[in-house]
Design brief:
The protein is α+β, with helices and mostly antiparallel strands and about 170 residues long. The protein is about 40% helix and about 25% strand. The protein has a single domain, classed as Alpha-Beta Complex (Maf protein), CATH 3.90.950. The chain has a 5-stranded antiparallel beta sheet with strand order 2-1-3-4-5, sandwiched between helices. α2 packs across α3. It is elongated, with a radius of gyration of 17 Å. The relative contact order is 0.16.
Length: about 170
């Protein structure tokens, strides 16, 4: 379910705090509608140093973001919030991974923008499409960079004894 919330996207905010806040905001909105359900909220941003690179407003900003990432390593932060009031579950985690970009030419950026909707992606890129154009290397698992760290969530649910209950 998509949460009807306004995300906090101030680039001056610590990227970790921003994704944790937004993941909790999303989970809480859905939890209010489904108070007995186990709700997972998630939010992802790209961070170059301490600066968040959220979704670009236009293609010029997208190009500027891709240029700023060119040849550098950066961090992808995903905030994950698990809420279930009936179980007393309320926790949030920042799951991170690093990505290193190739050195990009203007032609690389143009080609990438033609292939991927960069306006719908934090940092103006998605690793699931066209990564051969822009990505040199990255920290596995790829799901963390895509925006929902499946392996982390599965491990948390197992540690909480909920994985078996959800599987049955």
């Amino acid at each position: 379910m998509v949460a009807a919330v306004t995300e906090h996207e101030d680039a001056a905010t610590d990227p970790r705090e921003m994704v944790l806040h937004n993941a909790r905001l999303k989970a809480a909105a859905v939890s209010r509608l489904h108070p007995t359900a186990l709700v997972l909220g998630a939010d992802t941003t790209v961070a170059l140093g301490d600066r968040a690179l959220n979704k670009p407003a236009d293609l010029a900003e997208s190009r500027a973001m891709l240029r700023s990432l060119s040849g550098l390593e950066h961090t992808v932060h995903t905030g994950v919030c698990l809420l279930c009031p009936t179980l007393g579950l309320d926790e949030a985690h920042d799951v991170t991974a690093w990505v290193k970009f190739k050195t990009l030419t203007e032609d690389d950026i143009t080609r990438y923008q033609a292939l991927v909707n960069t306006l719908d992606k934090a940092g103006a890129y998605g690793i699931q499409e066209g990564k051969e154009i822009i990505i040199e290397s990255f920290q596995a698992p790829i799901s963390t960079i895509m925006g929902l760290p499946v392996e982390f969530v599965k491990a948390r649910l197992a540690a909480l004894g909920l994985l078996e209950r959800l599987s049955s």
